[in-house]
Amino acid sequence: MKYYNLKDKKEAVDFKTATIKGQGKEKGLFFPEFIPKFDLDFIENLHQYSDEEIAFQCMKDFIGDEIPSDVLKEIVSETINFEIPLKKINENIYSLELFHGPTLAFKDVGARFMSRILSYFLQDEDKKVTVLVATSGDTGGAVANGFYQTENIEVVILYPKNRVSEVQEKQLTALGENISALEVDGSFDDCQSLVKQAFSDKEINLALFLTSANSINVARWLPQQIYYLLALKQWQILEKENPVICVPSGNFGNICAGILAHFRGLPAEHFIAACNENDVVPQYLKTQKLEYKETVATLSNAMDVGNPSNFIRILELFENHFEDVKSKISGYSIDDDTTLQTIKEIDKKFNYLLDPHSSVAYTAMEQYLKENPGKKGFILATAHPVKFPDAVEMAAQVSIELPESLKDLMKKEKKSLEIQADFAELKRILLDKN
Ligand SMILES: *Cc1c(COP(=O)(O)O)cnc(C)c1O
């Protein structure tokens, strides 16, 4: 499989190059040269396959002969070595729980896959790679955990000061060793913009071999399709009609992976992009105008994105046909009061505890189902409520017990370096690492 640069389609690279480089010239995102279709018999009979086999079938066409089958099988099985259950909340809404991995959020899937792929590709190269990543909350922890103690890989994480939860902060600052955390005096968009500048800086690129682990990297983006298939495997046993799939969205990598799987043949009635007050995409779906905005800080902080990088991949899938995008995707913007209200209500009515991100998705789903009666579907529960104890306890007035693994982590010391949202400062730090 070749991947072309969405900014310059003449630039086409293999999977290895796309993974190591992260992005193409002019910061363009890589995109597969064609969309491999699922075998109809496979997709209609998912329950006959093991999760590992499904994950392997999902990924193999994107990698071709660049990685031997037995190695890829091993990698996908390590990627999903925790449960991903589809739980019923009520008659019409199910929850795909993506938070049973090591950092209790769905990004574990992409980060675990990417770290193993990168480490495979680097094993016969005499190269040290620096993974540079901006996080609005969960990416940092998942990447730190996924890459911790991986040989030949240094990880540098930028996160916005005071805008991530305590658990999230510990997950990215407490590991140390090959993981460094930079606490930026600014927003997630500032962090992301610093990272993008670093990628296009000549001097840095001469001194270091940089790659990204944001969802713009194909090795993080593509494996997210796997759990849509695992959801369908469970759905097909429970329900007849195709599901409406609602995804809490920030940078739009997750929902884009689901839509990609749908283009390959995964049955889905409709997709819902559930956003908080950062509503660039819901606005676009109304007005056809893509207007990037300043980020607003909300309770669902991993979705505080004013410039969703992956949305361009969705447009590419639909060949930029606005009417087609609109007929397949609905967008909703949910405010913080409603987010808290929904956590409280769903806990009370159905005894199901949502985290703030999943709560945004639940409300969006409920609104869509009200406008489109008779349909059913599932939300992607992207984080464990324990990662956001303040919001969840405030709303539901329950106290949530930390899992054992987190208790140990919370006792560890935070190690981070504070910096201004200033590229010169980041550059100095990166060059010093060399
Ligand atoms: C990252 C994240 C999101 C948003 O996912 P995107 O792929 O950036 O749209 C939603 N919820 C949680 C908990 C996250 O960590």
Automatic annotation (TrEMBL):
Keywords: Amino-acid biosynthesis, Lyase, Pyridoxal phosphate, Threonine biosynthesis. Transmembrane segments: none annotated. Residues 2-79 form the Threonine synthase N-terminal domain. Its EC number is 4.2.3.1. Residues 87-372 form the Tryptophan synthase beta chain-like PALP domain. The keyword ATP-binding does not apply. It catalyses: O-phospho-L-homoserine + H2O = L-threonine + phosphate. Pfam families: PALP, Thr_synth_N. It comes from the Bacteria. NCBIfam families: thrC. This is Threonine synthase. It comes from Chryseobacterium geocarposphaerae.
